Recover the amino acids of this structure.
């Protein structure tokens, strides 16, 4: 092995370590500053795009995402990085998410109350995290499976519309263009 190739390998390793340890800064609705590692950033189309067009020191503002929701999403991304969510079969084979997803962790992760579920879906939509959008929407669909219209009314999208701000709408429209 030549000295030049050894230095090349070491430089490549150091570059990969620097890229992995980079942390993007995200400011949440409550004003909290959350640092997110590069491997997690790459799962979000919105954050990745914003960081590519700005300086590394610049904060990304997410005024419609609560700190608790962002932390839950970061946990999802960390797990999904090592254990990608398998494609969810459509139509759903069951109303039970344990039967719908092949990895029990995902069923446990998304087993939250309806308000948190909708906040996760909105945030995932805005951030462009497709696997979390898929999981959240499958959960809503499972809540409606085998139910009459009268039984479905409590599972309503009015929560989404009532909390949708102009920024949410713009974010969704921008993501749908891609």
């Amino acid at each position: 092995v030549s000295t030049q190739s050894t230095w090349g390998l070491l430089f490549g390793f150091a570059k990969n370590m620097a890229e992995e340890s980079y942390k993007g800064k995200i400011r949440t609705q409550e004003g909290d500053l959350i640092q997110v590692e590069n491997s997690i950033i790459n799962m979000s189309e919105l954050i990745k795009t914003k960081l590519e067009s700005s300086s590394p020191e610049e904060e990304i503002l997410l005024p419609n995402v609560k700190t608790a929701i962002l932390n839950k999403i970061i946990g999802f991304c960390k797990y999904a990085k090592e254990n990608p969510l398998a494609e969810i079969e459509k139509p759903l084979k069951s109303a039970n998410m344990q039967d719908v997803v092949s990895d029990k962790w995902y069923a446990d992760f998304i087993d939250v109350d309806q308000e948190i579920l909708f906040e996760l879906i909105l945030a995932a939509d805005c951030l462009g995290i497709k696997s979390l959008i898929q999981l959240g929407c499958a959960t809503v669909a499972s809540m409606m499976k085998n139910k009459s219209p009268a039984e479905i009314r409590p599972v309503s999208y009015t929560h989404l519309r009532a909390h949708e701000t102009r920024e949410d709408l713009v974010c969704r429209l921008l993501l749908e263009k891609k």
